[in-house]
Design a protein that fits this description.
The chain is of the alpha/beta class. It has 3 domains: 116 residues, Globin-like (Orthogonal Bundle); 78 residues, Methionine synthase domain (Methyltransferase, Methionine Synthase (B12-binding Domains), Chain A, domain 1, Orthogonal Bundle), CATH 1.10.1240.10; 125 residues, Rossmann fold (3-Layer(aba) Sandwich). It is 64% helix and 7% strand. The protein is built from 17 helices and 5 strands. A 5-stranded parallel beta sheet has the order 2-1-3-4-5, sandwiched between helices. β1, α12 and β2 form a beta-alpha-beta unit. α2 crosses α6 and α11 packs parallel to α12. The two termini are 27 Å apart.
């Protein structure tokens, strides 16, 4: 699916120029926009790129609620860091002014309702974050212990606690779904609430990555499927743990899964599809600012292979927005690693029919 909205074309094509213009305007206005919070032009430019990317996704999907969800998240991040509420409001005002000056009247008319929807969220009561580690999780105590040990930098002990549980009979897939996955989600929520630092988040994530490698290495599934699946994170996408989990689940279910890792250039993904003979490509993106790259890659895959390749998408960006997977032109969507297995079983059945 190519970007067809004129506003989407402009936002995608000119996002670097627009972000620079927003940053220049904010630096020029200084305290009037930042609320007296010291911030570098580079940081402002990064925020502007995020704003524009989220706006792009909402515009091409024709769903203002996508931009509203982003604004609500950004408001929560600011609130937990004691950043004045006026900062985000002022930033959206500057963004609107820059876009209005850059676009013609008809093109800006496509963007204005989405921007206004984002502004409206700021007048509502802030939605509290919801914990991912809840009493409904049958392995809650084990998950909590794993998270606390990891945050306390007892990484080896944290991993041993899970490995012992698996040795005692907990299925490997349950360790992924009930422990690693919700712990990583809770970690993101804790960062949003300013309760963990970026280094802490990264350290726990690396512990989970090591744990997953140990768990996978202990299991040798029989080959039950002839289908080859290529799992990839696009260029620029550094969050690869969820995609790695999907690859492991497919491996455990007997699929031939190939995981290319984080930040894989588009042309190399296409080359690997050709070399591996994959009939299914699973694309993962966590950040909505990379959704336009998903659209581009899907278009390239279609240009090279036609409809021979089944394309599945997933990741946080798609989990937050129902049916976005259809808007980007994918054939299927999986919300989680276990859901990816179900989707692949359906795909395998349809390929052999």
């Amino acid at each position: 699916m190519s970007i067809t909205h004129e506003a989407g074309i402009v936002l995608n094509r000119d996002r670097l120029v627009l972000a620079a213009a927003v940053a220049d305007r904010i630096v020029e206005k200084d305290d009037a926009v930042t609320g007296g919070v010291p911030v570098s032009r580079e940081t402002i430019h990064g925020y502007a790129l995020h704003d524009l990317s989220k706006l792009l996704v909402a515009v091409i999907a024709d769903r203002p609620a996508l931009f509203q969800a982003y604004v609500e998240w950004q408001r929560s991040v600011n609130f937990h860091r004691d950043i004045p509420s006026t900062v985000l409001h002022n930033r959206l005002d500057v963004l609107s002014d820059v876009l209005n000056a850059h676009m013609d009247e008809d093109t800006f008319a496509e963007v204005a309702p989405v921007l206004e929807a984002g502004r409206q969220i700021l007048s509502h009561e802030m939605t509290p974050t919801v914990p991912y580690l809840t009493p409904s999780n049958p392995l809650l105590s084990l998950a909590n212990r794993y998270l606390q040990l990891s945050l306390a930098q007892h990484y080896d002990e944290a991993m041993r606690s899970i490995l012992r549980a698996v040795e005692d009979g907990i299925p490997v897939t349950e360790a992924y779904i009930r422990i690693i996955q919700p712990v990583q989600q809770e970690l993101g929520r804790l960062w949003q609430m300013n309760q963990v630092t970026v280094p802490q988040e990264h350290a726990v994530t690396e512990t989970s990555r090591s744990l997953m490698a140990l768990l996978r290495g202990r299991y040798r599934p029989p080959s039950r499927h002839n289908t080859t699946v290529l799992i990839a994170c696009l260029g620029g996408e550094l969050h690869d743990l969820g995609a790695r989990m999907v690859s492991d689940f497919l491996y455990l279910e007997g699929f031939h899964s190939i995981f290319t890792g984080a930040n894989t250039p588009h042309h190399q993904i296409i080359d690997e599809v050709r070399t591996s003979g994959a009939s299914v490509v699973a694309l993962s993106t966590t950040m909505s600012l990379h959704v336009h790259l998903v659209i581009d890659l899907i278009d390239r895959i279609r240009d090279v292979f036609g409809r021979k390749i089944t394309i599945m998408v997933g990741g946080y960006a798609f989990n937050q927005h129902a049916n976005l997977w259809k808007d980007v032109g994918a054939d299927a969507y999986a919300k989680s690693a276990d859901a990816a297995v179900s989707v692949m079983q359906d795909v395998t059945a349809s390929l052999s029919a």
